[in-house]
Amino acid sequence: MSKRYGTHENEAEIERERLGMLAAVRDPRTFAALEKVGVAPGMRVLEVGAGSGSVSAWLSGKVGSEGKVLSIDIDLQFHAHMPDNVIVQELDIENDPLPIEEFDIVHARAVLQHVPSREEVMPKLISALKPGGWLVLEEGQFLGFSEQGLSEPYRTVHKVISSGSQDEWRDPNFGLQILDRMRASGLTELDVIGDVWAMRPGEPSGEWWFLALERAIPRLVEAGIMDKSDEDIVLNQVREPGFVMLSPVSMITFGRKPNS
Ligand SMILES: C[S@@+](CC[C@H](N)C(=O)[O-])C[C@H]1O[C@@H](n2cnc3c(N)ncnc32)[C@H](O)[C@@H]1O
After folding, report:
1. pTM (2 decimals)?
2. 168: pLDDT confidence band, cut at 50, 70 and 90?
3. Which of 8, 11, 25, 129 pairs with 103 at a CA distance of 20 to 30 A?
4. What is the reported pLDDT for 166?
5. Residue 58 belongs to some domain of the structure
6. 136 CB under 6 A from ligand 1?
7. Residue 203, domain CATH
């Protein structure tokens, strides 16, 4: 893919594209995780921070006309139109109430790392589950991602961006806490699966990240973290044909609410 820095009209356009790429990279694993907990016709499922709605659309087919999907996000501008059994709602998971003991499955992907009161949100998600329901939370683990071998000048920029230090509320490693929080909350049948993939330019595997880099560069230059003269060098580095790097570890953590 050629260099695209400066060709986007605005940040929203980049974000829409990124959400599409995230879905292309992660949806197959997400769908396998939801199959693992037994998503089935007639179920009620809550999709938190739904983004483009790709997971909600898939869930719609799985729960069928007898089931319901509640697809929520604080910002619905990127959410696609959904079939009748999907209720799409603008909802702030931090500040708005959720139904109690309503859902067979509650799922969120790449959401809690962005939510400042994530520790308070987890019990809320558990309250929304019926007894016997499953909490399925997907989050990244960026520690190794930031430390991987890369050439300068991208290496330094990458370390800053992947540590999340430009956004004081983001915890890119919250995935590491989820199993512990599920255990402390009394969830049972705990399990985790994780994977790493090769990120390449010109395909969703890498572009979900390279687009974020492209979007972040003007702010990094403004903050003095990066030299203006390196802007094009860094983008050319990651978009060079044949470039490949490691993804973060993506972890899917499962816990089941006891049938008390
Ligand atoms: C990185 S995107 C992930 C989108 C989608 N889950 C996916 O994996 O394709 C994070 C999403 O969380 C949403 N979000 C962030 N804070 C939220 C909040 N307080 N309540 C609900 N949604 C929130 C954002 O609007 C965004 O759609």
Report:
1. 0.93
2. confident
3. 25
4. 65
5. yes
6. no
7. 3.40.50.150
- Give the integer Cα–Cα distance in Å for 113 and 207: 20
Q: Which residues constitute the domain of residue 252?
A: 11-256
Residue 5 domain flag? no
User: Ligand 1 in contact with 75 (CB < 6 A)?
Assistant: yes
34 Cβ inside 6 Å of ligand 1? no
- Name the more confident of 233 and 163: 233
6 is a domain residue: no
Contacts for 94 with CB less than 8 Å, ≥ 6 apart: 115, 116, 117, 120, 121
Bridge partners for 194 per DSSP: 251
* Phi and psi based region of residue 56 (left: phi greater than 0; alpha: psi -120 to 50; beta: remaining): alpha
- Measured in angstroms, how far is the CA atom of residue 115 from the centroid of ligand 1? 9
* Ligand 1 binding pocket includes 25 (Cβ within 6 Å): no
Sign (positive or negative) of CA dihedral 98, 116, 218, 201 = negative
Residue 4 lies in a domain: no
Q: Is the pLDDT of residue 189 over 90?
A: yes
Domain count, the chain: 1
